[in-house]
Amino acid sequence: QLRLVESGGGLVQPGGSLRLSCAASGFTLDSYAMGWFRQAPGKEREGVSCISSRGGTTKYGDSVKGRFTISRDNAKNTVYLEMNSLKPEDTAIYYCARVPGRVCLTTHWKASEINVWGQGTQVTVSS
Fold first, then answer.
1. SS3 114
2. Helix or strand or coil: residue 120?
3. How far apart are CA 72 and CA 74, in angstroms?
4. Per-residue DSSP letter, 62
5. Are 36 and 48 in contact (CB under 8 A)?
6. Pairing of strands 121-125, 10-12
7. What does the alpha-carbon distance between residue 25 and residue 28 come to, in Å, rounded to a whole number?
8. Which of 34, 65, 68, 125 has a CA positioned 20 to 30 A from the CA of residue 16?
């Protein structure tokens, strides 16, 4: 069964850190680029980061560059998002996504181009 399961979300103070994990099953992970998206209440789903199928290339949205790091361990069937220096505006549900290809293209920043999603994990940044 094809499945993505996020974990690691929670409540953190501004300036704090969290590491999200995405456990993948039911497909060959190293055949796909993987991404993280987020969605805050009343806002559209936003691309956060993307990593190529073997981890050689990473991309980040402007709002998280320098603060977030995406990585993957294909042997463990897991993708990670390390989030540092968190801000209240980072508050959202974070979704793991399978990208329809091996590389992260501009078109993949659009949520409508993604067909495989995890259920999401809530990240709340508040004092």
1. coil
2. coil
3. 6
4. T
5. yes
6. parallel
7. 8
8. 34
